[in-house]
TrEMBL record:
Keyword Lipid biosynthesis set for record: no
Domain called Alcohol dehydrogenase-like N-terminal: residue spans: 25-132
Superkingdom of origin organism: Bacteria
Transmembrane segments: 167-184
Keywords: Membrane, Oxidoreductase, Transmembrane, Transmembrane helix
Species per Swiss-Prot/TrEMBL record: Clostridium sporogenes
Protein name: Oxidoreductase
InterPro entries: ADH-like_C (IPR013149), ADH-like_N (IPR013154), GroES-like_sf (IPR011032), NAD(P)-bd_dom_sf (IPR036291), Zn_alcohol_dh (IPR050129)
Length: 340
């Protein structure tokens, strides 16, 4: 079998491997069909990932495949099932796991801190697997983790969505930002949404594919010398900051209404930020990470809205030209690699 190993920044090596034998108890052998590239994969490739990581490793934590062997008498998973799986390797035993497995105190991240799924076969513990209906295509199924992260973020403020006149802003029109948009629109039936995207080519693509209202606000600085100055740019009750850009987070602090909620999905560099609006406007900031707990719900959503969600897949490569997938990072929404 073939594997794609990230040796060091910008170095991917295609490796010949033996197909795993003697599958351990509680595990399945999965034939990996498709992996989707995440923003974390690009940062690992270019050497600027800011969280815990290691080289070398098999990258990829968004994936789909088929079970070809199983050694678990207690699982309902069977040979031939189409599956995807958690990004997080959680323990299930610690206090944090009882609250949110995405925050496990013993957590590892597939494809980031431990080997991921950029190989044609992988041995996976069954507790990390989720089964999809057989009619689900592998490309759609490989979007599950991305949309699960988005849904996990939305659930931070889900109770606020009952009031449909709240104005929502999504900063960044990448895969996560568009996943949030599609979930809000088609799952939660929410329409009062604007998107902020500064990349003109990406903005043009989104305009041609999705019926999105774009925010008109530009980058600016706010003088905290008066309360009227602090409040004059406030337009949004909820902001999802999906870029991981510290300047975008600063703009979110300026744009949010008093008593508003900001949900952050990126990992910011250590730079100076004017934080006084948090206190002056009583802003609620919610950090969110991971998508465990949401996979089954998301799979149902993807199947019901497959024509819409498939639009975010902009580039597809194979094993032999997989490294090209990392060269289009400024032009892509979601890039996928087919391993067969």
């Amino acid at each position: 079998m073939k594997g794609l190993k990230l040796i060091s920044p910008k170095v991917i090596k295609k490796i010949d491997l033996d197909i795993p034998q003697n599958i351990p108890k509680g595990h399945a052998l999965v034939k990996i069909n498709t992996i989707s590239l995440c923003g974390s994969d690009y940062k690992l490739f270019y050497g600027d990932y800011s969280g815990p990581f290691r080289y070398p490793l098999y990258f990829g934590h968004e994936w789909s495949g088929e079970v070809v062997e199983i050694n678990d008498d207690t699982s309902n998973i069977k040979i031939g099932d189409k599956v995807t799986g958690d990004c997080s390797k959680w323990c299930g035993n610690c206090c944090l796991c009882k609250e949110d497995k995405n925050l496990c105190s013993n957590i590892e991240k597939f494809g980031i801190t431990i080997d991921g799924y950029s190989r044609q076969y992988a041995v996976v513990e069954t507790k990390y697997l989720y089964v999809a209906p057989m009619e689900t295509s592998f490309d759609i199924l490989a979007l599950t983790e991305c949309f699960s992260v988005a849904l996990h973020a939305i659930k931070k403020i889900e109770s606020m969505l009952d009031k449909k006149d709240r104005c929502i802003l999504i900063i960044a029109g990448g895969a996560i930002g568009l996943s949030i948009y599609l979930l809000l629109k088609f799952k939660f039936n929410y329409c009062n949404i604007k998107l902020m995207e500064i990349d003109d080519s990406k903005k043009e693509f989104i305009s041609n594919v999705f019926d999105v209202n774009f925010a008109s606000e530009k980058s600016f600085e706010v003088n905290n010398s008066s309360y009227s100055e602090i409040s004059k740019h406030c337009n949004y009750d909820i902001i999802f900051e999906a870029s991981g850009n510290i300047e975008a987070f600063q703009q979110a602090l300026y744009l949010i209404n008093p008593n508003g909620h900001i949900i952050t999905l990126g990992m910011y560099p250590n730079k100076n930020v004017t934080l006084s609006p948090i206190t002056l406007k009583s802003i609620k900031i919610h950090g969110t990470i991971g998508g465990t707990h949401e996979f089954d719900e998301v799979i149902k959503f993807l199947i019901s809205n497959k024509d819409e969600v498939k639009k975010i897949i902009t580039h597809t490569y194979g094993v032999d030209d997989a490294s090209m997938g990392f060269q289009v990072k400024d032009k892509r929404i979601k890039t996928q690699i087919n391993l067969w």
